[in-house]
Amino acid sequence: MKGLLTIGLLILSNTFMTVAWYGHLKFAELKWFSKLGLIAIVLISWGVALFEYMFQVPANRIGFKGYGGPFSLLQLKVIQEVITLVVFAVFTLIVFKTETFRTNHIIAFLFLILAVYFMFKK
Questions:
Q1: What is the pLDDT of residues 39-88, one digit of tens each?
Q2: Which pick of 6, 51, 113, 122 has the fewest CB atoms within 10 Å?
Q3: 29: helix, coil or strand?
Q4: Which DSSP letter does residue 28 get?
Q5: Secondary structure of residue 35 in the 3-state scheme
Q6: H or E stretch at 85
């Protein structure tokens, strides 16, 4: 149960992170947003990133073996990185219609799956 909760929180966290880091590139198409200066965009991104931390920190505490969770620190980091890349890929395909998903991306994701496999192998 703690493992699934950790993964769910990491997915939520990375969704907010992706919006904070890359959403402003798409939101610039909105008339009111395009008039904002860099400082305003940074502050808006920080506001969104606050929600990332509200999910990331509990995910790591719940999932970490030192607090009774199922994952080592290395395992948590690999899970988080894989989730980050999957969330980013989905976000890119949905929000930025100009991006394409190619064969080399599929191969890269297969290597990520192998990385997770080897990280959890005893």
A1: 998 999 999 999 999 999 999 999 999 999 999 998 999 899 889 988 98
A2: 122
A3: coil
A4: T
A5: coil
A6: helix 73-95
**Which two tokens mark 111?**
């290597």
Query: CA geometry: angle at 53 spanning 50 and 55, to 5°?
Result: 115
Token pair recorded at residue 70: 């199922």
**Pairwise CA distance, residues 52 & 70, whole Å:** 22
Question: What pTM did the predictor assign?
Answer: 0.82
| DSSP for residue 101 | -
Residue type at 35 in one-letter notation: K
Six-digit token string for 24 = 């402003």
72 φ, ψ (degrees, to nearest 5) = -75, 170
Please list the helix, strand and coil fractions of the chain in percent, rounded to the nearest 5, in that order.
80, 0, 15
